[in-house]
Amino acid sequence: MTTRRLQQLHPPESAPVETGDGADIEIAATSPNRWEGHVQLDDGRTASFLAHRDGQQVHVWIAGESYVFTPPTPAARARRPGQPASGDIVSPVPGVVMTVLVAADEIVEAGQDLVIIESMKTEHLVKSPRDGTVERVLVQEGEQVERGVVLVVVVGIGEER
Amino acid sequence: MSVFSKVLVANRGEIAVRVLQTLQAMGIATAAVYADPDANAPHVALADEAFPLGGSTAEETYLDRRKIIELALRCGAEAVHPGYGFLAENPAFSKECAEAGLVFIGPSPETIELLGDKIRSKESAIQAGVPVVPSSPVWTPGESQPDDLSSQIGFPLLVKAAAGGGGRGMRIVERVQDLDAALESASREAASAFGDGRVFLERYIPAARHVEFQVLADSSGNTIHLLERECSVQRRYQKVIEETPSPALNDDLRDRMATSAVAMAMSAGYTNAGTVEFLVDAQTGEYYFLEMNARIQVEHPITEETLRLDMVEWQTRIAAGELITLCQEDIRPSGHAVECRIYAEDPYSNFAPATGRLLAWRPPSGMGIRLDSGVAEGQEVSAYYDSMLAKLVAWGPDRQSAIGRMQLALESFPVLGVTTNIPFLIRAIAHPYFRSGEYDTGFIAKYPELTAPPESNHLNLAAAEIAERIWQSAGPVSGSNVSGQAAQGPWRGLSKSTFP
């Protein structure tokens, strides 16, 4: 078993990857940063794949699904894959911050609207997942944000960061 | 009267490519326009001439009426095809084209204005004897609020934008205490998307199906219908999968709805290609007029595949003053067609839009497979425009074979670099509820397994192992350093290796 250096960025991993029984792989570099080949799967089927390395990410298409792998950041190493730090409210989409509806130290309820992001002509309401206090607001109106960027930090009642 | 010598296509993406292809096949010279991020887009390469609009946002490019008309005049175009979205249903643009001596390929400004006003179009439907859904008058939230409207409509209800479309400015409201917030949010979104913040309330019919009829009308008033399209697979009120014929209609219901569609088009004084959308109550079999779209519809290819005709060619001929030579009796469908919209979005994250560079884009091919695409490998998918990348269409002699071909095509369509909804489409197409043909607009919400992240299995294990091998062979350095011998890594001359 190879030691894993990468974590699965997409799709979100439902459970930590376990070791399989192993599979046969046939792989060839077909052009710069591009690999193609076939994998013999545990269930006996053969699946072809297409992979591409792009900087710090490796993208792999196999059997209709596209996976993205990347080395974990030091902060991410400390927690389970796909789990943001507690209290961090992240942008669900890339887009522009239209409205910030809360300020630091404000008390918010679960389900309360925090930020409105416009992306591809659609408004996305970012809501608080919990009752708590706004510790920090990290974005301003008009700011471009990537998906996953922390917008607001909400600390739950009785919680500490 | 002959068709045009040159036409400017005022759009981008797959529909610009689609329109350009037909115009070129008709021997018409073509001109394209493009925003800065689209400089390398396929529609720019395809057109005989292409002109930059200068800028990135839709407002400063594909929505800039003055720039587009100036370019059309300067390049000697006789007509403008607006595609869908952007200026397609903007009566001012249609009017300004006419004033500049350009033919707008679509209906008249008066018709566009009538149909763009949901209230007036509804009145037009009522006059034509077409059944409609109960709704309120329009108003602008914050300025004035009519009393007690919601109690007449009842909950659940829909808040809709008066100028809306594509689900923008639309909200389902279950409880009276949520109404004010929904009104404000819908109005703000509508003002941003359409420059018109007016809204209205409409009864929400759960378990409904969306079925639309294509119509074609010429300037002499000849109006025919080109049968229906079933559009009930939707996410965020936007269509994702369409098929024709609709599994929901029997011959009697189909005939009644088709008659309504033609009556609606005639009542609106419609010319060119248009679509009459209906809501069908799956429980009662009743149908209601929703709206009439004064443009070519995204999902027009499934009609083309079953009727073997070219909608864009008919649009162009009708705009040039030609009469429809098809008779209603000639409209006999052959087989079944399905369309899947390929969106840049994350199906596991509530269909959030995705951006990035298309590292790989390898469309499938095969019997009965058609791809209407507006992107190419290497292209950047930005957040400036709509997230639809392409439409995959499968035709088969019957429903089962069309769906079977679609399934195979979706499973052999590698896309890397930009997250797409293809994994969701594969699940939806294979789902027993879809296969049964009895699905309604609640399909996606009803089956969470359609949008759940995949379980960790032998596939993601294999993918992880492939990624590890690539990473280790190339080293944790910038990808651009990987080439030649280094990229071959440990696999050079190696036919098979076993892992782990």
How would you characterize the overall build of this protein?
The complex is a heterodimer of chains A (161) and B (500). Chain A is mainly β and 161 residues long. Helices cover 2% and strands 50% of the residues of chain A. Chain A has 1 helix and 14 strands. Chain A has one helix at 74-77; strands spanning 7-10, 23-31, 34-40, 46-54, 57-62, 65-70, 88-90, 95-100, 107-108, 113-119, 122-127, 132-137, 144-145, 150-156. Chain A has a 6-stranded antiparallel sheet with strand order 1-6-5-4-3-2, with no helix packed on it. A 4-stranded antiparallel sheet of chain A has the order 7-14-12-9, with no helix packed on it. In chain A, a hairpin with a 5-residue loop joins β3 (34-40) and β4. The model of chain A is unreliable at 79-83 (pLDDT under 50). Chain B folds into 4 domains: 6-105, Rossmann fold, CATH 3.40.50; 134-203, 2-Layer Sandwich (Dna Ligase, domain 1), CATH 3.30.1490.20; 208-450, D-amino Acid Aminotransferase, Chain A, domain 1 (2-Layer Sandwich); 458-491. Chain B is 33% helix and 23% strand. In chain B, the strands form 6 sheets. In chain B, strands 13-12-9-10-11-14-21-19 form an 8-stranded antiparallel sheet. A 5-stranded parallel sheet of chain B has the order 3-2-1-4-5, with helices on both faces. In chain B, α4 (91-99) packs antiparallel against α5 (109-116). The radius of gyration of chain B is 24 Å and the shape is globular. Chain B starts with 5 loop residues before the first strand and ends with a strand. Chains A and B meet through β2, β3, β4, β5 and β6 of A and α8, β16, β22, α13 and α16 of B.
